[in-house]
Design a protein that fits this description.
The complex is a heterodimer of chains A (467) and B (446). Chain A is mostly helical and 467 residues long. Helices cover 71% and strands 0% of the residues of chain A. Chain A folds into 2 domains: 6-182, no CATH class; 187-273 and 354-466, no CATH class. Chain A is built from 19 helices and no strands. The longest helix of chain A is centred in the first third of the chain and has 38 residues, at 70-107. The chains are: A mainly alpha (467), B alpha/beta (446). Chains A and B meet through helix 19 of A and helix 1 and helix 6 of B.
Chain lengths: 467, 446
């Protein structure tokens, strides 16, 4: 069930109507059942997996809390981490490791071709596994008390708005909202509807239109010149942002209508001027997760210079690998790691240049292109393709080349761009929502026009589901 | 009250602005196309202007003007050609008369290719009520209609998928179940309050329905109905089954079967079985195969005989689609002809008058005329109209249907047409049109 499908609409209306009439305890039960149905719609077999993960983490969470000494605490924590990463590793990376191993063996001249089962990737596993891990780790650190009710914990893991593609909620943020009664406010309901609608727009108009340009450029890059490849890169940069931001907004919107507050996942990432800023704005729930549970435990920046660099690289490479079992993701992570290292290494030189009022938009544009170069690694099927496209981008670039795609891309991005500038200037992500009602009505009708008239009413998978 | 008023005002503003956006969007698209047309204007070109409705418009690389341009570019004739697309979706011949001079001047046309008339009022045209006519002109209404249909298609697709999988399940089960019941009826007593004999009879009726022997089944059921039982559920069952038989006899077994869907069909039948899209789709998905096609045809023709005029074309068109699925070419062509005969009840006086005006304008400006008839319509009638009104037969008439008909003998309708009827072509269909056109144009200039 995708958020922008007919099934979801019916599912949500049904759930929501029941939700308003129930008391707190039964609201939670209802949401749990709804979440399981929502997940079972993809593949009911993986319900067993999510049940397995949930019960183990619930059990270990309380064990860690009541353990008599540090050693047992630690052993329970290690069990939890090994179990979570084991499940994730098996379902997500098994094929990758086996294929890489076979490739390696074949490179060495061993003819090795075993018949192996192909493991299907359960939807959203990367997201809920990380979430469940944050629970046990926080308890181990003494920052959190275990939940009493198993049902509440199960709802925390499987809450349907954020189950499939995040945001990766922290136990300390979402659990209290589950345990304590929620107040439904009319204004928050409207706000939720607005967020959902804005997400619909980002998905159905922006992302769905851009995906055609990006796909055609990336799939047949040989037949395009530099200008068209640039258009393809821009298209992908905004497609991945719009797609993912759409999902996060819809998730937040759905949460809001039911009185939940899910965290903001994207805060105008393309307005970043440097890599540190970028990762504070892009996929915030993942980057803060990696910071708190990987970077800081590794030592963060408290150790020597070289160890800090190592930590940055390691964190970003693993973060890249989290996105999918493919070497291109690993290199994408390494690219961003390298950016962070360089940024850190040249602190002395860059500091005087970083006057916040000087050249601000130029720096934004420059860094956007740096990020976009990273997306080339991210989207390319292989490193060979990335290399080929880069070559064409530089050596086959004519200003009077195939400009039509670029024009199309700009046309599609334009409405998003204007709204983002408004959001940036006013520092208000809900800028449309806070307009005068007349302006708001005109804006909504324009967005409706773009969605229905230009966007494609096709139900496609969100890009981030496979991560 | 004030709040309520505000909501109404908001909705009104929403709809009005949406309508404005939609109209502006269409305008922008046409402007972009015209800009492209004029951008590459150079001297010494032979400029061909293609006038028509949506079948000409299309607006991508697959429309016939675009394909014509590519073909003419590839031919090494020493001349340069420029094809200009002036198709407007939904254009009537009157629209062409009104704008023709302007288009010809703007485009510096040398040749005019015209395929028009489909949207003209038919000879049996009955004026629509004002509000309806007004509604169809609103772009928002069209958008909502499209949205509704695409969501309906989406639901139907899901439904059909589900049905196909469950049908396969039942087919796989085969007759094993039935044999079991026949062998040992006592073990399958569905209604404990009835005697084994009656149970046997019920099962027998059930099999007879499945075998489509409705009269015999009805006899048994009526006999059972005369018996009175204390068991209410038994009575209901008999009533249900009798209803099922009645219903299947009425609308055709292929519509009503299988029984599980019975209730839904009852609901749909009130919406006139003739043009209910969902029923067509379901029949199409399920019964259009070699085994049942004759039966389906026969029963649809029975419906056809009884149908109102406005529904006849739907039925014939549907028959065409059914045979297309099975791949019986002679039948496809037969119904393809028939649907056209029903749909095009001759070229009406209004269209004739407009053709006359178009020819006058073109002759006055000394522009070469190429008329085309839609690939789904016979060209003879148009020829008969055009000959008397043009001086010394100075036009070329392209009979698209002749070409298409020949090819349809060996290929599926869907290869050439992108919709069931309406004559919108696929890329390949448009290529056929463009090929013939290119030949004629090169003949003029060589």
């Amino acid at each position: 069930m995708l958020f922008h499908s007919l099934e979801f609409l019916l599912f949500f209306i049904f759930t929501f109507v029941l939700y308003i009439f129930l008391n707190h305890k039964w609201q939670n039960r209802l949401l749990l059942v709804a979440s399981l149905i929502f997940y079972g719609f993809w593949d009911w077999r993986f319900l067993f997996l999510i049940f397995f993960s949930t019960s183990i983490d619930y059990f270990l969470g309380s064990k860690i809390y009541s353990a008599p000494n540090a050693k047992t605490k630690k052993s329970y924590l290690v069990t939890s981490i090994v179990m979570n990463l084991g499940v994730l590793g098996f379902f997500k990376y098994f094929n990758f490791f086996v294929d890489s191993f076979i490739d390696g063996a074949n490179l060495l001249g061993l003819n090795f071709n075993p018949a192996l089962p192909k493991i299907i990737l359960p939807v959203g596993i990367s997201f809920y596994t990380f979430q469940a891990m944050s629970y046990t780790i926080d308890i181990y650190r003494g920052q959190l008390k275990p939940v009493k009710s198993f049902f509440d914990f199960a709802l925390f893991v499987s809450f349907f708005p954020k189950l499939i593609a995040g945001p990766i909620e922290r136990a300390s943020h979402l659990l209290p909202q589950i345990i304590n009664p929620r107040v439904l406010k009319l204004n928050e309901f409207y706000e939720g509807c607005h967020l959902f609608f804005w997400g619909l727009f980002e998905k159905l108009f922006i992302a769905n239109s851009l995906v055609q340009i990006a796909d055609s450029v990336f799939d047949q890059y040989e037949s395009y010149d530099g200008l068209a490849i640039l258009a393809g890169l821009y298209a992908f940069a905004f497609q991945i942002f719009a797609d993912f931001d759409a999902y996060s907004n819809m998730a937040r919107g759905i949460g809001k209508t039911m009185g939940f507050d899910l965290m903001i996942n994207f805060n105008l990432p393309y307005f970043a001027t440097n890599p540190v800023d970028f990762w504070r704005r892009w996929h915030i729930s993942l980057s803060t997760w990696l910071r708190d549970y990987l970077y800081i435990p590794l030592g963060g920046n408290r150790l020597s210079k070289w160890k800090t660099y190592r930590n940055l690289m390691l964190t970003m490479i693993l973060g890249g690998f989290w996105h999918g079992a493919n070497w291109t993701f690993v290199f994408w992570g390494a690219y961003h790691g390298l950016l962070l290292v360089i940024y850190r290494a040249f602190t002395a030189i860059r500091k005087p240049l970083e006057d916040p009022n000087r050249w601000y938009f130029l720096r934004v544009i420059f860094f956007f292109h740096v990020v976009t170069l990273g997306w080339l690694l991210f989207r390319a099927e292989s490193l060979l393709q990335a290399k080929g496209m880069l070559y064409k981008l530089i050596f086959d670039f004519h200003i009077h080349g195939q400009g039509e795609l670029l024009l199309k891309t700009i046309f599609i991005i334009l409405p998003l761009f204007i709204v983002q500038i408004m959001q940036y200037k006013t520092k208000d992500l809900l800028i449309i929502f806070h307009q005068h009602w007349l302006v708001k009505t005109l804006a909504y009708s324009f967005l409706t026009y773009l969605i229905l008239g230009w966007g494609i009413l096709k139900v496609e998978e969100f890009i981030y589901f496979q991560f | 009250m004030k709040k309520f008023l505000r909501i109404i005002i908001r909705i009104l503003i929403f709809v009005i602005s949406l309508e404005i956006y939609l109209n502006c969007g269409g305008l922008v698209l046409t402007l972009i196309r015209d800009y492209k047309n004029t951008r590459n204007a150079t001297d010494g070109q032979i400029r061909i202007i293609c006038i028509g409705d949506s079948t000409t418009y299309y607006n991508n690389e697959n429309d016939y003007p675009n394909q014509l341009q590519t073909m003419l570019d590839q031919v090494n004739s020493g001349k340069k050609f420029r094809v200009i697309n002036k198709g407007i979706p939904g254009a009537k011949s009157l629209d062409v008369v009104q704008h023709l001079e302007q288009w010809l001047d703007e485009g510096h046309a040398d040749v005019a290719v015209i395929m028009i008339g489909r949207h003209d009022p038919r000879s049996d045209f009955i004026p629509l009520p004002w509000w309806y006519a007004w509604g169809t002109k609103m772009k928002t209404a069209g958008l909502l209609n499209k949205l509704f249909h695409s969501s309906q298609d989406y639901v139907l697709e899901k439904y059909n998928k589900f049905f196909e999988s469950s049908a396969k399940f039942f087919a796989d089960r085969g007759d094993v179940h039935e044999l079991k019941i026949k062998a040992d009826p006592e073990k399958n007593v569905i209604f404990p309050a009835t005697s084994p004999e009656d149970t046997k009879l019920i099962l027998q009726a059930k099999f007879l329905i499945e075998e489509k022997k409705f009269e015999q089944a009805q006899e048994i059921l009526k006999y059972l109905d005369t018996k009175t039982y204390a068991n209410k559920s038994f009575e209901l069952k008999i009533e249900d089954m009798l209803g099922e038989v009645e219903y299947k006899k009425k609308v055709g077994w292929y519509v009503a079967a299988p029984y599980e869907e019975y209730m839904e069909y009852v609901r749909l039948s009130s919406a006139a079985i003739y043009d209910e899209r969902s029923i067509w789709n379901r029949i199409h998905a399920r019964w259009c195969n070699d085994e049942y096609i004759e039966d389906v045809e026969q029963q649809l023709l029975q419906l056809y005989a009884k149908a109102e005029d406005k529904n006849k074309e739907f039925i014939v068109d549907f028959l065409k689609t059914c045979f297309d699925k099975v791949g019986r070419q002679n039948k496809i062509i037969y119904y393809y002809d028939l649907v056209e005969k029903i749909y095009n009840k001759g070229i009406n006086p209004v269209t004739q008058e407009n053709y006359k005006k178009i020819i006058e304008i073109l002759q006055k400006k000394n522009i070469k005329m190429i008329f085309m008839q839609y690939p789904t319509v016979d060209a003879e009638e148009l020829e008969e109209i055009l000959i008397p009104i043009s001086e010394n037969k100075s036009f070329i008439l392209i009979d698209n249907k002749k070409i298409f008909k020949e090819l349809l003998k060996n290929n599926s309708y869907k290869v050439y047409f992108s919709d069931d009827y309406g004559g919108h072509c696929t890329a390949l269909g448009n290529k056929l049109i463009a090929q013939d056109l290119a030949k004629q144009i090169l003949k003029i200039y060589n």
